[in-house]
Amino acid sequence: MFPQFGATAESLSKASTMVFRIGTDAHLYDDPDDVSIAPLLDSKFDSEKCEALKRLLALIAQGFDVSNFFPQVVKNVASQSLEVKKLVYLYLLHYAEKRPNEALLSINCFQKDLGDPNPLVRAWALRTMAGIRLHVIAPLVLVAVGKCARDPSVYVRKCAANALPKLHDLRQEEHTSSIEEIVGILLNDHSPAVVGAAAAAFASVCPYNLSLIGRNYRKLCEILPDVEEWGQIVLIGILLRYVIARHGLVKESIMCSLQCTDSSHSEKNSSDVDFGLVKESRDMSGTCDSEFVNMVSRCYIEGPDEYLSRSSYANRVSFELNGAQFTSGKSNDDVKILLCCTSPLLWSNNSAVVLAAASVHWVMAPKEDVKRIIKPLLFILRSSNASKYVDYIRDPDRRFAADTVAAIGQCVQRLPKMTHICVDGLLALIRKEFLTNDFGSGDQEAGVLVQAIMSIKSIIKQDPPSHEKVIIQLVRSLDSIKVPAARAMIIWMVGEYSSLGVIIPRMLTTVLKYLAWCFTSESLETKLQILNTASKVLLGATGEDLWTFKKVFSYLVELAECDLNYDVRDRAHFLKKLQSCNLVSRGPEEGTNGLPEKDLHVVAEYIFGRQRRDVKAESINYRFYLPGSLSQIVLHAAPGYEPLPKPCSLLPDDLNVPEGTCSIKKGAADYGGTDGYGTSSGSSDDEEESASAYGSQRSITGSSGGSRGDDSEFTSEGNDNVDPLIQISDIGNASENENGVSQSSTNLVELMSNRALESWLDEQPGSSNPGISEQSKVRKSSARISIGDVGRRVKPKSYSLLDPANGNGLKVDYSFSSEISSISHLLVCIEVFFKNCSSETVTEITLVDEESNRALDSADQASVVDESSLLSYDNVPTLVPMEEIASLEPGQTTSRILQVRFHHHLLPLKLALFCDGKKLPVKLRPDIGYFVKPLPMDVEVFMDKESHLRGMFEYTRSCTFTDHIEELNKESGDSLLIKDKFLAICESLALKMLSNANLCLVSVDMPVATNLDDASGLRLRFSCEILSSLIPCLITITVEGKCSDPLNLSIKVNCEQTVFGLNLLNRIVNFLVECVLF
Amino acid sequence: MLQCIFLLSDSGEVMLEKQLTGHRVDRSICDWFWDQSISQGDSFKSQPVIASPTHYLFQVVQEGITFLACTQVEMPPLMGIEFLCRVADVLSEYLGGLNEDVIKDNFVIVYELLDEMIDNGFPLTTEPNILREMIAPPNIVSKVLSVVTGNSSNVSDTLPGATGSCVPWRAADPKYANNEVYVDLVEEMDAVINRDGVLVKCEIYGEVQVNSHLSGLPDLTLSFANPSILDDVRFHPCVRFRPWESHQLLSFVPPDGEFKLMSYRVKKLKSTPIYVKPQLTSDAGKCRVNVLVGIKNDPGKTIDSITLQFQLPPCILSADLTSNHGTVNILSNKICSWSIGRIPKDKAPSLTGTLVLETELERLHVFPTFRVGFRIMGVALSGLQIDKLDLKTVPNRLYKGFRALTRAGEFEVRS
């Protein structure tokens, strides 16, 4: 009507937003570099400096690199204006690590600010100084933190606690004990705010030093309700760990109830009603649950990796919780006080606090008290479990409806009381479904129906006799249900429960006749299921029915043999043979086949008649990890995940030892033979481990005097540099690995640089002045030795893809090849060996990808692989089409190189093997060791890369290694030099590594030990890069122990890709401990 | 601990990054995140914890802004999520709501707040009261002042006293001429009424909101007449646990200003204030809709802002819906919204009309769920009653005020 008004209104609203934006920093964000920033930074007005800094901040926010302004910004750190200071700090923290030298310019200012009367200035200075993370100033920061930890201002003390993890991140061992001492001081602080921050520092700096907690345990419990919420979360976890390490598990808790005895069984059942509603507790009603809870509690304590890997060992070292590792929650004051102080926290506003408190109760509380955590947890969810599912079924979203039906099935499995209601509901639904189905509402309706029948199936499975009528109803509705999957399932039920009750057996004849009548019009899966059912029925049949069944069965088989689909034909042939004894008659005559009839009958019984064991539908993975942990949600151990400490691993004596000596004692004790989990004092902290390892070595070799041992504090930065080592490397090995040609050099030891060794020996007396200068010198003191024949002896492990028994006499093995695919870096090369073990020629052998094959299945021409269909995403096929083997004579062997792209480094890939026109499904299991390729580099590069991948990119595990013993025993007859023992160890280790993963041996460090039987200090470095991402991955193995005994290895992986690195580490540990069967 | 926090706009643009530890997180992770959230849709957005190839991500979305935090190590995931929620709340309070512009306009304040709220990946100061004293919220006066004088410092020169006190939530020693304290009971009714008109679930989720302007260090005690009806409770950190455990008394030193003292739940209520009776009958490709709304149990106060919303089934081609009271709108995403307002005395509001089904469909076999909204001032439907509010030392000129409000929460009627 009045367009001009509209325009005015629009411009008005624009104007008003402009007005609102006046005075904000909007223009700085929108055009941060519309003026020259540099002169503003040098301005003498604070406001101009501010503007410049804000512009820089805007650029940072938008992802631009403005580190080139660093020198000018640093100058402004001396400004008196707090706003300028704050902005400069924000900038500094962002770039300090990039520009360490310039950042040093600010240190003086921080030092000055630390003495400022304004606590805010002191706190900021400390935060920034620690936050810029420079190794050089670490000693200064340590002094500053120590001073601030005694500051009168609570805020400054809190910042001091937060600064400790920053200092710890620099990984300077010489500071460890001082840092822990400050943690101790702060934990003892009287202000709850400081205690909370100190708890966080404790958790990241020294989580194993539980003796620190022991000293203040009671006070910490009492202060817990007053601590800030974030501190509470961490502190609760620490206290829980402490109590378990100190006193063990609580006898009355769920964790133990089922481990102790079965005598509590009856008592347990009585409490079922209470627990029925709780998600977690529902397990108590099952039968296999004692085993299950046992598993859960062990996983909590040992960590799932250890638990699972242990169960796969041949020599299973059973870890039994003995009676001494339990305590009574009723008599133990420490347990009581923890439960008492955490229970009000269930009322916290912060859900993380509630969950942390609940997990304490879950693990520690007496069984009958656990239910108090239920309501607070449900309150968090703001929903009630009482709402019925029934109404959801008519929800417009049919996918959702299908899920609902599935959920009903699961509910029933857990709440047996609800069974009847649910089954009735589901049956009604099915009836309704096939009514509505008439007017074609598509796939989704079918999904709902199938899901409903599946749910019923799983319900029936639990207790077949009581659901006889349900089965009958389903069978009756068979005529009206059209969805093939649903029909197949009902038919399966007929076969499975054919002998159940009274009515079903009587119905069988009719049902079978009906099925035979409609056989030809059925779909594939239904046909197969009909055949199965018929043979099941036949097996169970007796008396006069037998004759009818036989007739029906023969008729069915005849029909099936002429079927278009080869699967159906196959099935028919198979069943015919199998049932031949039944078909002919039950006489004592010999079968036409070579096998005696009796055996055939047994086989048939075995295949069809066996009682099925209930497969646990629900994934129980999440129970492996502690409740409320990140790992529990992502379903793998996140880096830094720690299970609960071993019960009672903290001895009361530990509490009285002052920290300084404690850490030393710890180191010494660990080398007594525990595998890094034994004592709570935390030998699995690998930094510590290696530090003390070298400490002891130093005292052996340090001929220059006792001073070396004393100043160990200063030398730890470069473990590798200070140690008197000979470095051995085989540079030729990597290339050798790749082209498969072995070097002819049999000379085991070849000292390439005698002079370097001499020069190191000369340097020795001068090394009494420790420090940075020394580090650079010692690096050169290495001799290079090449191990020539390792590459030649590398034998990749072979896995079986197809057993001759399953493959008509065709045997297929595969081994991962160290070759690199030329097509794409995502592909892994696998060498596949085909061997014909039968007496007939096998023809047309090929391997194709299951997925792409499915599409071709119906066309019946699966051996022709359409290349375009293989090209899935990324344009890299899952499987590069393999050259077909036209024929394979009996006894003949041939091999093919297969290039495969695994979807995941842990999940197997389903392939289909075709031979003689038949399809055999096979599974190709990935080996993470071959998802990498060798990355040749020299030691310096290795060290450099390693130094960039510290902290959370570094993971360590320990294991024992025994392969070399056999090697040594074998050679003990020969008069080998003692030194060669080391070489033998190196070789067996390197061999093991290179045969199981596609790596490159970078270097071998050998200790020049006075004790010739002591292999401690032997170190091998391997390098590789991840195929898919080309991210380097560094592996260091450090040996500990005597040559002739099993060696303790500590394996360290440095890799930017966290999950991959962890999995690779686990794989390495697994194959290193595997025994070789020569 | 958290390594980095990103703020993403609703179009996926990274508005801000704040690195927290020495392990820098490249912002390419946000591209990955956004690609995933586009390709996977809502199911991805509802996942608070995501395992990306390189990092674990926590996401919280508030008012279109995505708060994304990254970590590579084990930490309690709820801690990350709760922290992000706290950041979102604080920013929303500071900036008066959240949107792309307001964050960009005040990016310096956002940076300053983040820097104060988290140190080395662990929360430092999250108490809004203290934050407000350290970093002044933007307001008209300061904006104008900054334009006029060119000086715009919003960073406090001194450390708030509360950082050191044992009641960190309380600003140190405020002074008021008029001492006032208001207590509001705000309740939301969650109910599910099934197809047969049976009340399947009915419960109240309530909050006790307090707005306090009291001088000095007041110590308050709030008691209920009938605390036994409360099923679940959760408290602000200022509430002392002991008095609640022993006598169900709320004893606390309040923060200054508005805060949520407690939240609670009352389960198994017997009735709802209004009834909604939907009737859907379908045949021959058409579906007749008739929905009646009326007062069931008069709460004694007027019920207003009554609304009814439902999603039309996807198999519907067109809808023709009219009402005898209020307005009916069908939104583009097939949501039908009927705003009734107050129920008139003389007639019962009803919605009638027909839906035309897709051509091959005879009858409708999926039925929508009706979401009901309403508001009742002056009544707490749970029946919870405040008995009294005591101050240990009564200041002069004290005013105490009490209010109650009930509105519909997740109130669903199925048809």
UniProtKB/TrEMBL annotation, chain A:
Tagged with keyword Cell cycle: no
UniProtKB keywords: Cytoplasmic vesicle, Golgi apparatus, Membrane, Phosphoprotein, Protein transport, Transport
Compartments (UniProt record): Cytoplasmic vesicle, Clathrin-coated vesicle membrane; Golgi apparatus
GO biological process entries: intracellular protein transport; vesicle-mediated transport
Region of interest: Disordered: 666-725, 761-784
SUPFAM superfamilies referenced in this protein's UniProt entry, alphabetically: ARM repeat
Record-level GO cellular component terms: AP-3 adaptor complex; clathrin-coated vesicle membrane; Golgi apparatus
Compositionally biased spans, kind Low complexity: 669-683, 691-702
Composition skew (Polar residues), residue ranges: 765-775
Membrane topology: Peripheral membrane protein
InterPro entries named in the record: AP3_beta (IPR026740), AP3B1/2_C (IPR056314), AP3B_C (IPR029390), AP_beta (IPR026739), ARM-like (IPR011989), ARM-type_fold (IPR016024), Clathrin/coatomer_adapt-like_N (IPR002553)
Main location: membrane
Span of domain AP-3 complex subunit beta C-terminal: 753-907
Similarity section: Belongs to the adaptor complexes large subunit family.
Function summary: Subunit of non-clathrin- and clathrin-associated adaptor protein complex 3 (AP-3) that plays a role in protein sorting in the late-Golgi/trans-Golgi network (TGN) and/or endosomes. The AP complexes mediate both the recruitment of clathrin to membranes and the recognition of sorting signals within the cytosolic tails of transmembrane cargo molecules. AP-3 appears to be involved in the sorting of a subset of transmembrane proteins targeted to lysosomes and lysosome-related organelles.
Protein name: AP-3 complex subunit beta
Organism of provenance: Durio zibethinus
From TrEMBL, chain B:
GO annotations of cellular component type: clathrin adaptor complex; endomembrane system
Gene Ontology biological process terms, A to Z: intracellular protein transport; vesicle-mediated transport
Keyword DNA-binding: no
MHD domain segment(s): 178-414
Main location: membrane
Subcellular location: Endomembrane system
Keyword Transport: yes
Protein name, UniProt field: AP-3 complex subunit mu isoform X1
Gene name of this polypeptide: LOC111277395
